[in-house]
Design brief:
heterodimer, A: 47 residues, mainly alpha, B: 775 residues, Calcium-transporting ATPase, cytoplasmic transduction domain A, Rossmann fold, 7-stranded mixed β-sheet, 28 helices, flat
């Protein structure tokens, strides 16, 4: 079970990485409009 | 600053192409899917937006040199696919770097290359799709709102991720048999929980602490105090337990509680901003720039002019799809105008020379030339915006009352929590602190202080959509309680138009129909109310020659080689004596003498009867109070089925009657036109004024029927009653919830995390209940 002494701190780092990734996505405006991109898939004449 | 754009009016330039548009009857909305060109759109109107000063209001330099970021309000987008059309169209244009269109918010963000395109080109491109682009009023507001939303979501996510992980660390302690976890491992898990609680405490939960700090500075007890206290105590006590290596830690409850609370707040703000948008949409309507004639009618040259440069008396050319910058009169042109925003009336209203147009309404079919009469604050639009602003700053009595009770309630909760600590430290010292935390967290004053304003706001927003403006939100409560509606007659139950009531033949062998037709022929082309009444009454269309109007008296004209005179008795046949003066009369005479006497009277509003019937169904007593003669008032009342009709009332006697009714304890609603019944209206508990009446700002009315539909009176009352019910439901729920949960928490039966969940869901429930009123 000693491995947990490595894995638990690692999980903290993982959470922090996740939070940073999310911050980046938010900053890029990924969450500003949750409606339009869903409809964009149905659009086939993509020029 | 502004450049000049020579525009020829006829025959080949834009009037011409716009007529094609008119023939096709392309509606303003829904037409977006049709491929259309920039034909009907006037590029010149948008070119003033290239002015750097004006542009700075809605644009700012982007990251790259020469690139500009602009924010636009785009109107007419009803769904996501509309937004997509705009987005795709703009993306293909040269010089456009990126486009983001948000259909829900009606906003577009453009990044474009200042070297390769101009912002006016982009506006024209959007307008050519039959959407209405506006620059945002202040770019700062929009950015701020977006950043706030992002920050709230960011806090929520930090709390969410940390909560999930802290749960993972806490889970072994819940499930493991005693002795399964070594003390080392136990400490490791607890320290890991502590590390992940830090971002929650120091970042995600800061709004609660900030609110408490603000309240403390203002010497108030705010809603967030118990919450912040609960969080702080939990964190400090758990940290102390961790350092001493003895006692319980509650990092899992702490993070979960913060997450629930933030989630509830986020949903609340989303829901409320949706309602507020209904009202807020108004202030973005006016165009920033218009085309002004340099010297009308001598020359047809126009210059682009900025909105703030306009003066009363200016003659403007309003292109298709543009809004009117001020109130004015149509000088030339024939078009339809969308006044839905101001009156709630969906169908376009046709306008031609001489008709009045109001600021903020849209020109739909063909360009119009308009002379400005009122601008800015004095325009009808300005009045409406001012009323809305005033209403927004006013707090209804019930909300203020709820706020006060919420304050006392909070003090009670703090005292109770302190008592819980004292009592529990006698019973079980280890649990005392946690019981207190549960008590602090579970109580939900939100329902008291949050739900009522939300309900009032939702109701005002809903009424605004119908064209009923709520100027004093407090009046909505009285509206729901009232049991008597008092109508003024003139201009309220009756419209301002006249109708032909009776034709009295004064000479043998004259057909009444023929006489009416003759009078109508003489009055053709006049805008006098009598003329309109005659036009609608005449069955034959005759043609009179040499018609001359004598202002204030009547008309003369020749028809079938007779000289006819029509007008007042003195004008048509001096010496003719009237038996009695009944309303407005018109005497038709020829060379030989008087022919017929016509009486004109007021017409009832189309929807008056139905509105009165609905009011009666709502168990309201309906009566008429008028300064007009008793016979006329009784006649109108009889037609509408109103039993209680009092005519011949002077303003003082009206006040006395009103006071007598009010003496019975129930609020009285007064409906008037706001012109001659000001004192009575201001004395009534709820005053409702027809929008077509007096200047809105002076009427001091509680509700204004911009729609001019009497049917909106019962509709508003029904909605106010629903609002009252929802508020009562919410208060009952809050009382029941707290009555059940607080004792449970005091008895130590409610763990802190469950208390947090209960509070968050309770406040969300009351807000959602209030939002039902928007439908």
């Amino acid at each position: 079970m000693d491995i947990l002494f490595l894995l638990i701190p690692l999980s903290i780092v993982l959470v922090l990485i996740l939070v940073v990734i999310f911050y980046w996505a938010l900053k890029e405006g990924q969450f500003d409009d949750l409606e339009l991109p869903g409809h964009a898939i149905l659009d086939d004449d993509d020029s | 600053m502004s450049r000049s754009f020579p525009v020829r009016l006829a025959p080949d330039v834009s009037f011409d192409t716009s007529y094609k548009l008119t023939e096709l009857h392309i509606p303003a909305e829904g037409a977006a899917t049709l491929p259309s060109t920039a034909d009907g759109i006037d590029a010149a109107a948008y070119q003033a937006l290239d002015d750097p000063q004006l542009q700075a209001q809605f644009s700012r330099p982007a990251a790259q040199a020469d690139q500009v970021e602009s924010w636009l309000v785009v109107e007419g987008m009803v769904c996501a696919s509309c937004a997509q059309i705009v987005e795709r169209h703009l993306r293909d244009m040269p010089g456009v770097i990126s486009v983001e269109v948000n259909a829900a918010a009606g906003r577009a963000r453009l990044v474009w290359d200042a070297q390769r395109t101009a912002v006016s080109t982009l506006f024209v491109a959007i307008a050519s799709l039959n959407y209405r682009p506006f620059p945002v009023q202040h770019i700062g507001d929009d950015l701020q709102r977006r950043d706030e939303r992002r920050r709230a979501l960011w806090r929520l996510f930090v709390a969410g991720f940390c909560m999930m992980q802290v749960m993972m660390y806490a889970a072994p302690a819940y499930f493991a048999a005693p002795g399964d976890i070594t003390p080392d491992m136990d400490q490791l898990l607890k320290w890991a929980s502590w590390v992940l609680s830090l971002p929650v405490m120091l970042f995600a939960a800061t709004p609660f602490f900030a609110n408490v700090w603000r309240d403390v500075l203002a010497h108030r007890v705010g809603m967030d105090l118990p919450v912040a206290l609960g969080i702080a105590i939990t964190f400090c006590a758990s940290t102390a337990a961790l350092l001493q290596k003895s006692g319980e830690v509650y990092f899992d409850s702490l993070t979960m509680f913060v997450f629930f609370l933030l989630a509830g707040r986020y949903l609340e703000t989303l829901a409320r901003s949706k309602v507020a948008a209904n009202l807020e949409g108004l202030s973005n309507r006016l165009p920033q720039s218009v085309e002004r004639f340099v010297d009308y009618p001598a020359s047809c040259e126009t210059h682009g002019a900025l909105a703030h440069q306009l003066r009363c008396g200016d003659v403007l050319r309003i292109a298709v799809g543009q809004a009117f910058p001020g109130d004015g009169v149509v000088v030339e042109g024939l078009s339809a105008v969308d006044e839905a925003l101001l009156t709630g009336e969906g169908a376009p209203v046709s306008k031609r020379g001489g008709d009045a147009v109001v600021a903020g309404s849209y020109n739909l079919e063909a360009p119009l030339i308009v002379r400005l009469e009122r601008l800015g604050r004095e325009s009808r639009f300005g009045e409406i915006v001012a009323l809305i602003e005033r209403a927004a700053s006013e707090k209804p009595r019930l909300a203020a009352l709820a706020d006060r009770y919420a304050g006392r309630f909070l003090v009670g909760v703090l005292v109770l929590a302190a008592l819980a600590i004292v009592i529990w430290s006698l019973i079980d010292p280890a649990r005392a602190l946690w019981v207190a935390v549960s008590v602090l967290v579970v109580t939900c004053p939100c329902a008291l202080s949050l739900a009522t304003p939300a309900a009032v706001l939702a109701t005002s927003g809903n009424l605004a959509k119908r064209g009923v403006l709520v100027c004093h939100p407090g009046a909505l409560e009285a509206l729901a309680d009232a049991e008597r509606v008092v109508f003024d007659k003139t201009g309220t139950l009756t419209s301002q138009q006249l109708a032909l009531k009776s034709v009295q033949v004064l000479r043998d062998g004259v057909e009444p129909d023929r006489a009416v037709a003759v009078a109508a022929a003489m009055e053709r082309g006049s805008l006098h109310p009598v003329a309109t009444a005659l036009q609608s009454a005449a069955s034959d269309k005759l043609q009179a020659d040499c018609v001359r109007e004598h202002p204030g008296a009547g008309v003369t004209g020749i028809l079938d080689s007779h000289i006819y005179r029509f007008g007042s008795a003195e004008f048509s046949w001096p010496g003719f004596s009237l038996n009695e003066a009944v309303g407005v009369i018109g005497l038709l005479a020829d060379e030989a003498g008087p022919i017929t006497l016509m009486c004109f009277g007021e017409t009832l509003r189309d929807d008056a009867r139905q509105a009165i019937d609905e009011l009666k169904l709502q168990a309201l007593q309906v009566c008429v109070l008028s300064g007009d003669r008793q016979e006329t008032v009784s006649e109108v009342a009889a037609q509408l089925g109103i039993a209680d009709a009092r005519g011949g009332q002077m303003p003082e006697s009206k006040l006395a009657v009103l006071a007598a009714w009010q003496g019975r304890g129930k609020p009285v609603i007064m409906v008037g036109d706001g012109i001659n019944d000001g004192p009575v209206l201001s004395r009534a508990d709820v005053s409702i004024v027809m929008g077509s009446g007096a200047p809105l700002s002076q009427s001091g009315a509680d509700l204004v029927l911009l729609s001019n539909r009497l049917g909106d009176v019962p509709a508003a009352i029904a909605l106010a009653r629903r609002m009252q019910r929802v508020i009562k439901q919410n208060l009952c729920w809050a009382a029941a919830y707290n009555a059940v949960c607080v004792p449970l928490a005091v008895c130590g039966l409610l763990p802190p995390w469950l208390a947090g969940l209960g509070m968050a869901s309770s406040s969300l429930l009351v807000v959602l209940n209030a939002l039902r009123l928007t439908r």
